[in-house]
Structure formats: structure tokens, C-alpha cells
Amino acid sequence: FISYSMMPFDGFDVVIRTRNNPANLLHRIKEDVHSIDAGQAVGDLVSASDLLEGDSLGRERFAASLFSGFALLGLAFAICGLYSIQSYLVAQRTQELGVRIALGARRSHIVGEVSSRCILSVLLGTVVGVAVVVALSHIFAYWTNGDVRDPAVLALTIAIFFFAAAVASIGPGLTAASIDPMQALRSE
What we know:
Helix content: 55-70%
Shape: rod-shaped
Largest sheet: none
Structural class: mainly alpha
Radius of gyration: 30 Å
């Protein structure tokens, strides 16, 4: 807040907190000002909810939507990368997986094995990432108003990472489970 005598403007804003209906109070304030000086101009009467819903936060909303878009793009790239790595690993293990299927391994076991390796690598990366965030939280707190060690945010982030790992490993897992043992043995 700045002292009224130091303000270079002709007008000023009044902020009032109320428990009653703000519209009634704003109308009453306008009447009181006009009862003291009928020629006094009273500008816009705006409630806090109108300010928050209006265009006053447009710049912040744009920045938030831009960062959200980049985060989704990064997540899509991560899913594509995980999918590519898992597909390559399945292609490298085609003969081994074909032998396992020929010896009676259930297809669900093959899918689980391929998926578990992907999820294990994401788990390791998530543990390291969370440790770094917690260790460097004082640096990240400079850019945010909240606590970067918020358990709800960390849990949501971890859930998104595991969802991405599951999505990325389903395709290669199903490919591995559908390997024809005879084709796999003939390929080498």
C-alpha cells in the first residue's frame, strides 16, 4: 500500500472486505460518496471475483497455458521415446521370447516382463527426480508461490509418469506376446 499523499494519480482505489453481499455494499458506498459530494465521480465498482474472472489475469493464464502445452508436448515425446526403446528391446529379444513362448510361457507373463522393465526404469528416474526436487526445493520456491514439496503435486506427477510408462510399454508388450515361436527361431 502507498500513502495517498504520495500517489501521482487523481483517483484511488478502495478495498473493502465484507461478509454481506458485495453488490449491496458497493451500491451503498456509491450512495455515501454522493451524499457527501454530489459532484464526486465514482468509478467502476468491481468485486474481487469479477477481477479474477476477468482479463486482469490474462498474461498469467497465457503463461500457464503455454507451460502446460510444453509439458504435454514433453510428455508425448517421453512416451514416444519409451515406446521406441521398448520396441527396440523386444526386437533384440525376439528369439529369446519366441523360445519362452514355445516352452509354454503364458502371454500375460511375457507382457508383464516387458512392461515391468519399462516401469522399473521410470521408477528409478522418478526416485532420482523427486530426490533432486526435494533437495533443490529452495531454488524452485523462488519461481513458485507454493511449496514444491507438496505431496499432492508430487503424487500426481508420479502417477502421470507411471501412466506414461504403462502406455508406452503396452504396444511392445503385446508385440512380444504375439511372437510366433517358429518365426522367431527361423529369424537367426
